[in-house]
Amino acid sequence: MKPSRALLACLVSSFLASALPPAPALADETCNSPYMANLIKGQEDFLHVWTLGVPGMGDGNDKLVTVDVNPKSKKYGKVIDVLPVPGRGEAHHMGFTDDRRHLWAGRLDDSKIFVFDVGTDPARPKLVKTISDLVGKSGYVGPHTFYPIPGRMLVGTLSNARDHGGATGLVVYNNKGEYVASYPIPTAMPGAKADGYGYDVAINPGKNAMLTSSFTGHKNYMADLGKLIADPAAMKQFGNTMVLWDFKAMRPTKVFDTPGAPLEIRWSLNEGDNWAITATALTSRLWLIRQDKAGQWQARDVAPIGDPAKTPLPVDISIAADGKSLWVNTFMDGKTRLFDLRDPAAPKQVYEKVTGKQVNMISQSWDGKRVYVTSSLLANWDKKGADNEQFLKLFSWDGKELREQWKIDFTKEALGRAHHMKFTARPAGSAPVDSTTIADRSGPPR
Asked: How many helices (H) and strands (E) does the chain have?
């Protein structure tokens, strides 16, 4: 006899209530879950890039690309491993399991999830499992955010199998890749404009607070961007809300009106802070979610990003470990901006630089001295012609200037479209990679 969905939800809720630690731990990438172990406390050794395949480019498959990023290595700034997965399915985001030994990577089109072993040999990841039951088990489409909780992976999705619109939910798997439960994002809440849309997930354990944000459904994110913008009806199908959840109970408690597709969510990691920040893609604003003096959570529009009238399209953000600054990448103008967050209710832009003709993801090291940038947003949203740059870049940051250290041209290397990034480190006592060829498992070494 199979347990009911309600029973599964009860079981996972009971597990979360009893197993979660009372306060977050430090993490090396400031967007990571506070429940991760085996943290990198110094220099990262490898950067893994989840890469979209391009028809006619190399093998054309989506792939996990590994780059050596330790300055002491002979292969510093070079691709050392290429691991393709079958086909193309809009490779997008990744996330570690709580023990950091496995990396889950999702595809937004076919909803497959690939599980890589990065703990045994992070220089040469291994594909150990493909999860193909997300749609069948949950009814949701487009696995986007992979957020580890103890013994589980919390997956935020973007769409649904019924109409491929924006109404969606959260899905829980165990670390073996077995489905546990799913939770719909509310489409109705008393006194709120709930829309049921989803995107990112972020948790503050000390406050038992989980936030989800919102984007758009499969019909929109798989459409050509030019045609999408020209379709007034389609442009109305973007999320305008964030949801606050009682995390231990996995129960939504409040919906915030945050117009314009709020994307990445970043909690301040500074001890004692009680706020998170996000950026709205279509309205180009920073929004602050914070408790007021009465302890009630509120959302406020606190600053513009560039000139909102020109729709710079903020995409990824990266908060400093001390919560005092925030990097923001804007796709349309190719700029990386820095905001002073010392007063989170009044962020101030203090720096900007054009870092590419199009830029998307941004990841900074825990000490803030290294900033990595990739270029691809979505296969059908990336720019055309000469503006369709596909790269990974490393910049140093000395507090005054971003200085490019190296660049890998993913088009020239026939790798595809560079999207999400994650750091790993060598196991203690292991030697740097000194091979003279790239380990490319789609064919002979290049």
From this structure: 5, 29
pLDDT digits (tens, 9 = 90+) for 229-241: 999 999 999 999 9
Judge whether residue 24 has pLDDT over 90. Answer: no
Name the residue among 109, 104, 90 with its Cα closest to residue 173.
104
CA distance 16 to 3: 18
How far is the C-alpha of 188 from the C-alpha of 64, rounded, in Å? 39
Which of 273, 304, 303 is CA-nearest to residue 204?
A: 273
Backbone angles phi, psi at 365, to 5 degrees: -70, 165
**Rounded CA gap, 25 and 431, in Å?**
28
Contact 179, 171 (CB under 8 A): yes
Return the SS3 of 106.
strand
Around Cβ 307, how many Cβ atoms within 10 Å?
A: 10
How far apart, in whole angstroms, are the C-alpha atoms of residue 340 and residue 349?
6
Is residue 82 a contact partner of residue 439, using CB atoms and an 8 Å limit? yes
**Tens of pLDDT along 111-167?**
999 999 999 999 999 999 999 999 999 999 999 999 999 999 999 999 999 999 999
Angle at alpha carbon of residue 358, lines to 319 and 40, rounded to 5°: 35
Q: Which residues pair with 76 in a beta bridge?
A: none
Segment holding 446, helix H or strand E? none
What letter does residue 429 receive in the DSSP assignment? T
CB half-sphere exposure, 278, CA atoms < 13 A: 31
Q: pLDDT tens across 242-291, in order? A: 999 999 999 999 999 999 999 999 999 888 899 999 999 999 999 999 99
Which stretches does DSSP call E strand in 152-268? 152-160, 169-174, 179-184, 201-204, 209-212, 241-246, 251-257, 262-267
Q: Which tokens go with 111?
A: 């909803």
7-16, 89-98, 99-108: least confidently modelled range: 7-16
**Which residues, including other chains, have CB under 8 Å from residue 343's CB and lie 6 or more apart?**
none
Query: Who contacts 88 (Cβ-Cβ below 8 Å, separation ≥6)?
Result: 52, 53, 55, 60, 61, 62, 109, 379
Distance in angstroms (rounded) separating the CA atoms of residues 68 and 156 = 30
C-alpha 91/C-alpha 117 separation (Å) is 18
On whether the CB atoms of residues 288 and 274 are closer than 8 A, the answer is no
Tokens 């000194």 found at? 434
- Helix (H/G/I), strand (E/B), else coil: 386: helix
Strands 91-96 vs 439-440: parallel, antiparallel or unpaired:
unpaired
- Phi and psi of 11, rounded to 5°? -65, -45
